[in-house]
Write a structure and sequence with these properties.
about 375 residues; two-stranded antiparallel sheet
């Protein structure tokens, strides 16, 4: 089994703003075009990733060989508008953004409101609330079976925090949030979905910043718990033990239970240091590490009379990939009307994992790796 892809991305962004006394209005549009060329070869199996997003279960298919190569292109576009008001001790921001992803015709909107108020000379209280909606036009791989009758996914989040100046010039901030989700797509039958899922999340964030002359150092840690539940039941696939030979997987149903969100990362830590060399040039070094993304491991493994092995799914999202980590280096030149930068992401060329596969009898596994070292360049201008 092998999989490879390569490609390029082009991004354009335009922002504008205007101040009216204590008020400010800003807005912008952005568009990102991705062009991917791929090569796929699956000799004895395929993934159920399209069913539960990162299953890591391979269904044996009697040696059927599938190969494909080609190219694909999709865009990610959007716009936003924000209004801000700044008083002597209190500030207010209201805004929304709309985004469109062409690959799945997905539409996302996120209106929000936030306030901050100074308490004394060293403390600021912050709070925000937002409502999010996403068109569930997912690419499940079988649009005919899915249909277009899914409800719009909805979520609401409330956040609060406090920022305070500590002794020795240290600025500290602590915050928390609570989130709820409704009408999440749930697979109630194979490739048949309904908007009956629920979600919940909560988390905390702790950060400190220290400035000393031309140096600045920042550390930020966050913890979050993000879960979802599938109603009216959880669908899984297990071997058909009622047949003469365990030779195929059949749908099975479990009572609903909460499981980790497929894209949740429980722990995240960022440490950054930058130094301004002179009035126009600065260097920045940042290290980022996160918990591995959850995935659904295999359950029981059976040896078939003909055709090798077959495995069932384990408990949904009950295992995790290895931790993600990278170090980035950035150099920036600035002048009165603009700036430009050159950066290198993952400068140590760490081979981070984004998925995995098992061997033929499920006794060992290997990894699919993320893109390695990546350079970047950009600039901005003010008029």
């Amino acid at each position: 089994e092998s999989k490879g892809w390569y490609g390029k991305r082009r991004t354009q962004r335009l922002d504008a703003g205007r101040r009216f006394g204590q008020s400010t209005v800003t807005g912008g549009v952005f568009s990102s075009l991705s062009m991917i060329e791929y090569e796929l070869c699956f000799g004895r199996g395929f993934w159920l990733a399209s069913r539960n997003e990162n299953s890591a279960v391979r269904l044996d298919n009697d040696g059927f060989a599938f190969t494909a190569d080609g190219s694909d292109m999709w865009t990610y576009t959007g716009c936003y508008v924000e209004y801000g008001w700044e008083g002597e001790k209190t500030g207010l921001e209201v805004g929304t953004r709309v985004e469109l992803f062409s690959r799945s015709a997905e539409v996302f909107t996120g209106p929000r409101v936030s306030i901050h108020r100074s308490i004394g000379d060293r403390t600021v209280f912050l709070a925000s609330a937002g409502f999010f909606a996403r068109d569930a036009a997912e690419d499940f791989g079988n649009p005919a079976a899915t249909g277009r009758q899914l409800a719009v996914e909805k979520a609401a989040q409330i956040s609060a925090g406090i920022r305070r100046e500590l002794p020795f010039g240290v600025l500290a901030q602590a915050g928390c949030f609570v989130r709820r989700d409704w009408d999440l797509p749930v697979e109630i039958e194979p490739v048949t979905y309904a908007s009956s899922g629920r979600g919940r999340g909560r988390g905390i964030d702790l950060g400190v910043e220290k400035r000393a002359g031309s140096w600045r150092a920042v550390a930020d840690y966050s913890w979050n718990s993000s879960e979802r539940i599938d109603y009216p039941r959880s669908l899984t696939f297990r071997p058909d033990e009622g047949s003469a030979a365990v030779d195929n997987l059949v749908p099975a149903y479990d009572d609903p239970y909460w499981y980790p969100s497929p894209y949740g990362r429980k722990h995240s830590l960022t440490v950054e240091a930058d130094r301004r060399i002179n009035a126009h040039f600065s260097l920045d070094l940042a290290w980022r590490i996160e918990s591995g993304r959850p995935y659904t491991p295999i359950g029981e493994v059976y040896e078939r009379e003909v055709g090798g092995y077959i495995a069932s799914e384990g408990r949904r999202m009950s295992a995790a990939l290895p931790a993600y980590s990278r170090i980035d280096l950035r150099a920036e030149w600035s002048w009165p009307k603009g700036a430009c930068f050159i950066e290198i992401l993952n400068i140590t060329n760490r081979r981070n994992v984004f998925n995995m596969r098992y061997n033929e009898d499920y006794s060992s596994r290997s990894w699919y790796r993320m893109i390695p070292l990546m350079p970047g360049f950009g600039f901005r201008m003010s008029f």
